[in-house]
Amino acid sequence: MKLLIAIVQDKDANRLSNQFIDNDIRATRLSTTGGFLKSGNTTFMIGLEDERVDEVLDMIKAASHTRQQFMTPPVNLDAQLDSTSSYPVEVQVGGATVFVLPVDQFHRF
Amino acid sequence: MKLLIAIVQDKDANRLSNQFIDNDIRATRLSTTGGFLKSGNTTFMIGLEDERVDEVLDMIKAASHTRQQFMTPPVNLDAQLDSTSSYPVEVQVGGATVFVLPVDQFHRF
Amino acid sequence: MKLLIAIVQDKDANRLSNQFIDNDIRATRLSTTGGFLKSGNTTFMIGLEDERVDEVLDMIKAASHTRQQFMTPPVNLDAQLDSTSSYPVEVQVGGATVFVLPVDQFHRF
Ligand code: NI
Ligand code: NI
Ligand code: NI
């Protein structure tokens, strides 16, 4: 038995949560904040048999790894004449941090 | 030293919290959500000497194990003529998930 | 690799959070409640290389250890004639509980 603690961006959390449900993985969800920008993120606690750990790590990685995304910046009304302001820009989104913890005992009552 | 992480239903959390206080057990409480219905639950983090683990597991089990309860469904105003709608029905409530984690160091400052 | 779980008073949390940022320590922050008075506190989860554990324990201790502080009690409008009510009194503030947990695997995606 292991306890996975996975911290993901809020924008990736719902998709991941649905995948857990589809795969019969019971996850408990916490609202957390983190890092320099104090942005909201989501922490999942997931109890797992050892033989399912890799499968769930792959799922988390696929749903929330760091990637580049094109985003159209919001129009700045004070700069209407600056025609560059509405071009899409490439930003980095996603990213996950996962701890796999040993478990001495697991109980369901 | 162990760290217990116990996830219980919100409706069982206050009673359990009072029992912890009565028994000098320091618990930190988190608001969490979980499972298919995204229902609210409560997670307790409890640091314990090894010899108190079984006592606290028993306490959690007694306060929050899965059990049947009779509940009167709310009256449905659109179905006033259906006389069955106010009969009590048996529903399953409660249930707890507990992880007992090993601890390398414990400090109180 | 270790996972530190540190529970501190809300009033000490922002200072500590800034120190973590200044020292390139990534911490995830949870809103929690605890103890007899159900006062709000803050829990930090911090993943650390073994060789940084002592440094971070010192940081947590310095920022949030139990200490005496003088506080002027709020003026009680019903007791305006009681001249003792506005004298500063000594109260105990702060205090931190820290668990250092072993980690089997750590991933950043
Ligand atoms: Ni991808
Ligand atoms: Ni019972
Ligand atoms: Ni000091």
TrEMBL record, chains A, B, C:
Q: Which PANTHER family does the protein's record reference?
A: CYCLIC DI-AMP RECEPTOR A
| Name this protein carries in UniProt | Protein from nitrogen regulatory protein P-II (GLNB) family
Recite the lineage of the species. Bacteria, Bacillati, Bacillota, Bacilli, Lactobacillales
